[in-house]
Amino acid sequence: MHAREALKNRTISPSVNDASPRSDRRPLYVQVRTDVLARIEAGMWKPGALLPSEFALAGELGVSQGTVRRGLDSLVQDGLLVRRQGRGTFVADHTPADVLFRFFRIHDAAGHRVAPTSTATRVRRRTASRAEADALNLAINDRIIRITRIRLADGRPFISETVVIPASRFPGLGDDGVVPNTIYDLFQHQYGVTVSHAEEQLEPVAATARVAGQLRIKPGAPLMKIVRITYDLSGRPIEWRISLCHLKGLHYVASVR
Amino acid sequence: MHAREALKNRTISPSVNDASPRSDRRPLYVQVRTDVLARIEAGMWKPGALLPSEFALAGELGVSQGTVRRGLDSLVQDGLLVRRQGRGTFVADHTPADVLFRFFRIHDAAGHRVAPTSTATRVRRRTASRAEADALNLAINDRIIRITRIRLADGRPFISETVVIPASRFPGLGDDGVVPNTIYDLFQHQYGVTVSHAEEQLEPVAATARVAGQLRIKPGAPLMKIVRITYDLSGRPIEWRISLCHLKGLHYVASVR
DNA sequence: CAGTGGTCTAGACCACCGT
DNA sequence: CGGTGGTCTAGACCACTGT
After folding, report:
1. Is B235 on the interface with A (CB under 8 A)?
2. Cα B158 to the center of its chain, rounded Å
3. Quick one: pLDDT at residue A8?
4. DSSP assignment letter at A71
5. Lowest-pLDDT range, A5-19, A132-146, A198-212?
6. With an 8 Å Cβ cutoff, is B85 touching chain A?
7. Beta strands B117-127 and B143-153, pairing class
8. Does any strand D atom come closer than 7 Å to the Cβ of A85?
């Protein structure tokens, strides 16, 4: 009954369930997902925040608790929400280590994850090259921020990395010359940009003289070149990253499902 | 009501819902999943087969249609079942091309998938080496089948590959000297072994003289070494595969979610 | 048209959490 | 203890399929 009345007298959140003949043809649980996701992206519920209970959301959106539950399910599936029985549903707040290990797929011979550190970080502002504009879906003269750094495992340099991000999404980033080791965490908490997923292209290459010098190896040694494009929750590209990795005794781990 | 009676008078499939105090503490929908999965693995429903309707299964298992649905959902999610609205639920029957492209993650510069062919295939029977026994969870003197072959893209040799499988799971495989290009399809339809997922370790290496000769490249050229362990539906390892790939103009594609 | 999956509801009961 | 998520049911209606 509550839902029936709410369905007629709806004033808030008309996006989900307002008039009797529904204009939006998508299933209600999809609309619930979209609505909740929009609020998270808009910053209404920040990482770590407690959402209203399923019944409260159901009342507010004019649908049944089961339908709310189904919508939230898909966001839990995507790792955006976390349920804690007896306590409530929370916006996922991944630790820097969580995010690092999700995207850093290099392990040692024993199968343990490698935690890299960063050094020799440089930040420059440029206009996008053709390749950068293509990768990030920008116009060719849009401003980008280009970060280069050397990454270390156990103090040994093993990755030469270039990160390119659109300046418009991250105003002021690196202006003080400081960039943290885990930049996705900065994206999240400083700019409200949540990293959703990434696509990587891997290819073995021979070390050029320049990179060999950076990594203190012989020119021509085999390196793993990893080209990554990272996407936000809306599916827009937010980062283009090229890593040249000297994987002596290490390997990249992929899982095929 | 039907479910109530079935719940009391249960004779078939006591595994899901038989006595009033349930012995199995797992949720009913998990038990439905397990039960249906077991029947598929036992060959009761073969790839392409039509399952009973959700209501029929619900009656048979003594649970409600919604619970059956939830159990089947998880199998659909895993790609083991396919739903077709208005027609029914079917055991997934992946074409050889489906399976090939799921596990063969190499694309060309334009982003198109590469379809490899095979040549120079050799099949040998051996006892497992230490490394092979470890990878496949075998005892050290268990019999294995070792397949070596060269794989071609557009007629050009680009992968030198070694596949190791436990002889006990695949009796008679390759006895006639013939091994198809897509062996997972053979596993499925000849031996009823469904490939579930795989874990891969990637590393750039320099081509040895031997492999360089096979692939007609210079010794020392950078190759991608891919070590794969493949698992069946029960999570048991069924294949250990080492591929040495000359990815000139090609790349391995990985997706991080 | 009958039969199937797909959506949605209302309500029950359980398991878990913090006070 | 009250409030939360987790499971399960029974039944309604819709959308799609093949005959």
Report:
1. no
2. 24
3. 31
4. H
5. A5-19
6. no
7. antiparallel
8. yes
User: Closest Cα to residue A149, out of A247, A241, A253?
Assistant: A241
Minimum-distance nucleotide, CA of A89 to C1': D5
Token pair recorded at residue B48: 């392409």
State which residues between 14 and 73 of chain A bring their CB within 7 Å of strand C.
Answer: 17, 27-30, 62-67, 70
Cα atoms found within 13 Å of the Cα of residue B199, Cβ hemisphere only: 13
What pLDDT does residue B22 have? 61
pLDDT over 60 (residue B2): no
Residue in B202, B247, B257 closest to A254 by CB: B202
Residue nearest to nucleotide C2 (CA to C1'): B86
Instruction: Provide the pLDDT confidence category of residue B4 given band limits of 50, 70 and 90.
Output: very low
Query: Is it the case that residue A12 has pLDDT exceeding 80?
Result: no
> How close A107 gets to chain B, by Cα (Å)?
9
**Taking CB atoms and an 8 Å cutoff, what residues of chain B touch A247?**
203-204
Is the CB atom of residue B222 positioned under 7 angstroms from any atom of strand D? no
* Strand D contacted by A23 CB (< 7 A): no
- Residue B16: its pLDDT value, please? 53
For chain A, count helices (H), then strands (E). 8, 10
> Given an 8 Å threshold on Cβ–Cβ distance, is A102 in contact with B256?
yes
DSSP for residue B217: S
Mean pLDDT of B211-237: 96
Least confident of A62-76, A242-256, B13-27: B13-27
Mean pLDDT of B127-153: 96
DSSP of B142-188? -EEEEEEEEEEETTEEEEEEEEEEETTTSTTTTTTS---S-HHHHHH
Contact B7, B17 (CB under 8 A): yes
The separation, in Å, between residue B196 CA and nucleotide D8 C1' comes to: 30
Which residues fall within 8 angstroms of residue B91, CB to CB, at 6 or more apart? B40, B45, B46, B47, B48, B49, B51, B80, B81, B82
- The answer to whether B107 contacts A201, with C-beta atoms less than 8 Å apart, is yes
pTM, two decimal places: 0.90
Q: Quick one: which of A150, A172, A154, A174 has its CA closest to A162? A: A150
